[in-house]
Design a protein that fits this description.
Length: 174
């Protein structure tokens, strides 16, 4: 196999590295978004914008002013107490609250994946650190440095993931 030329000119911007999925990691960083998730993300982006709030306030003020009969010759279609406006705002509130709940559920799913990835990376790092401690201890012994260190022996122990998961399940369900 030939190696790719990885040198770059100083003027070229550095390209972001692609994270390759390791077969040892159980979780995936990429989250598949359904069509509904994409639509609700867009709806939440629009409904949560300052432009949309401004538009709502302008339309609401115009609606109220038009229906207060302040302009002679203009007949209001929803006179005070604005029952039609009340109905529209109630429907809008329902749509807004449901879209917020859907967005929160999507965020929760994404956070679970992130937590799992973080946990797996931490376990991998712990295993690598333990291996380095063992190697350093072997080097120390080969150099003839004999020192009993109970803390080092405790640090060299591998983590029992099954016991850790069991402990999390027991403490998390209380």
């Amino acid at each position: 196999m030939s190696k790719k030329n990885t040198t770059r000119k100083p003027s070229e911007p550095e390209k972001p590295r692609k994270i390759e999925k390791s077969p040892e990691l159980k979780s995936s960083i990429e989250i598949e978004l359904s069509r509904g998730d994409r639509v609700m993300t867009r709806v939440a982006d629009v409904l949560g914008s300052f432009k949309f709030l401004s538009l709502c306030l302008v339309v609401l003020c115009a609606y109220i002013l038009y229906n207060l009969s302040l302009v002679p010759g203009v007949r209001p279609f929803d006179p005070y107490p604005f029952n039609g406006l009340n109905t529209l705002l109630t429907i809008f509130a329902i749509i807004l609250s449901v879209s917020v709940l859907i967005s929160q559920n999507r965020q929760r799913r994404m956070e679970k994946v992130r937590e799992q990835v973080e946990f797996e990376i931490n376990v991998r790092a712990e295993n690598e650190i333990t291996k380095m401690l063992e190697m350093l201890h072997e080097i120390q012994q080969k150099l003839g440095i004999r020192k009993d260190d109970p803390e080092l022996e405790r640090m060299k122990e591998t983590i029992d993931l099954d016991a850790l998961h069991k402990n999390i399940d027991e403490n998390g369900n209380n």
